[in-house]
Amino acid sequence: MLLAACGGGGGVGGDSQNESDHPASTAEAVRFLTQATFGPDEQDLASVQQLGYRAWMQEQAALPASSHRQVLEARAAGGVTLTHGHRQSAWWKHVLTGRDQLRQRMAFALSEIFVVSDQSDALGADILGAAEYYDLLSRHAFGNYRQLLEAVTLSPQMGRYLSHLRNRNPDPGSTQRPDENYAREVMQLFSIGLVQLEPDGAVRIDGQGQPIPTYTQDDITALSYVLTGWHYAGASTWWSYTENWSPMEPWEAHHSQAQKTILGTQFPAGRTARDELMAVLDLLAAHPNVGPFLGKQLIQRFVTSNPSPAYVRRVATVWNNDGHDHRGNLQAVLRAVLLDDEARHGHERAPTTFGKLKEPLLQQSAMWRALRARCDDGHYTFTRPDATLGQAALRSPTVFNFFRPDHAPQGAVATAGLVAPEFEIVDHTMSLNIVNQLYASIYWYRRGNSGVTAADIVIDATPEEALAGDVDALLDHLDERLLAGAMSDSMRALLRANLVQESDLRRRTQDAIYLIVSSPEFAVQK
């Protein structure tokens, strides 16, 4: 399971533009949608098979963004006292019913890079603000990276989380210094990374065989001074707490107008807070590291943990120029990630190493979407997914997400020189929690069960039960819809031997689904 999840397509190269743009089978469509959405459902399967990959992605990009904040505002207007649990439920509502699947899937990937978390005291009570931050990521999911970086930087939720809101220039003679938190993370995590990279993601080495840093402590200090003088929009005084989600505004009286040098570029004295910040964000967005650094992370989130250098290079090339002289076109970058030849055929050419461990949230969402899960009251109450799945939207323990992109579990993966990021949250206890959560979703929360309420998220396995009289037909269907037709012969033999002994067709169906979704073959995305 470890090696199968760690990726590494070797020398897979080329692109898929010379091939048919339509999936050759339902199983191929399932595999594509497993990468591109929160799990295939009947509507998206039919759509991608009819339209083809590119047209489906274009159609998805044209859909309006589902809004988490609007869902919460509607509930508040109905008299509900909002909590972050309601925000989680809004997230699941869009995951399971939203038609803008590609956008929401991209927003989720971005939320694991441009991290804010309600686990911080800074956002613990800001439910609508956190929802608006996620909506910000959704709105920019197919836009320009430079504009996204600006929106993230000026978000008051990010400003509180990484403490550059109300960051001020010290008084003359003071020993205080501006807070350096965001100055550090915007370079380390949100743009250029710690070390210089080649276009294919390889680390650049100096004459002593050491990685070459992208920035120094002096760069962090200088950037922290650039970030002085930003406050809530509409604040009446510098010390007033005017909580909102509008972009922060500059207060020139608290902005450092001293000369600064960042990444070798000199910023002259006397510049306004906005002009100086915009210039620095331009500098970061234009850095040659951004394409391979962030492009590789998007490949990891959507496709495979260890993409080949050639795959990273191709995605970074599109990041640098989308073909129309536009840099950082995220829609074009995502298309390059998902339609690359390695994304579409890596599982065939490197079957033992290509792919990734599905994040626990994605295991749950894929099962629910495949089995038509719905909540009759429309609220999709699942307030603490982190308790059973180890994750929840905007609830990571640190700014470094639930897992780091370079995490390598000890043993087979590390020995092979590979990484498997998602294993950082899937320990022995969480593995049991995940399969217990899936078990409850299948056996307890099924449409028609006694005790199910309108507030429960319930599956509808009626179509599967209609096939259950023929074990082979049931396995064929579940193999296609849950495993993209990749069930191993050994797994099928074990399942068949078990299922033919169960005469109750409802129980046979439930057992088949559970044994598949609790298996390594379902947990690993190929």
Quote the beta fraction. Answer: under 5%
Q: Largest sheet at a glance?
A: 2 strands, antiparallel
Shape: globular
Strand order within the widest sheet?
A: 1-2
Distance between the termini: 11 Å
- Count of distinct strands: 8
Helix content: 40-55%
Query: Low-confidence segments, ≥5 residues, pLDDT <50?
Result: 8-18
Structural class: mainly alpha
Q: Which oligomeric form is depicted? A: single chain
CA-atom Rg in angstroms: 24 Å
Tally of contiguous helical segments: 26
- The overall pLDDT average reads 95
State the main characteristics.
mainly alpha, about 5% strand, two-stranded antiparallel sheet, 8 strands, about 50% helix, about 525 residues, globular, two-stranded antiparallel ribbon, 26 helices
SSE topology:
Elements: H1 2-5, H2 26-36, H3 42-51, H4 53-62, H5 68-77, H6 84-97, H7 101-111, H8 127-139, H9 145-154, H10 156-161, H11 181-188, H12 217-226, E1 230-231, E2 249-250, E3 260-262, E4 265-267, H13 273-285, H14 290-302, H15 309-320, H16 330-339, H17 341-349, E5 356-357, H18 360-370, E6 374-375, H19 385-389, H20 412-415, H21 428-444, E7 457-458, H22 462-467, H23 471-483, H24 489-499, H25 505-517, H26 520-523, E8 524-525
Antiparallel strand pairs: 1-2, 3-4, 5-8, 6-7
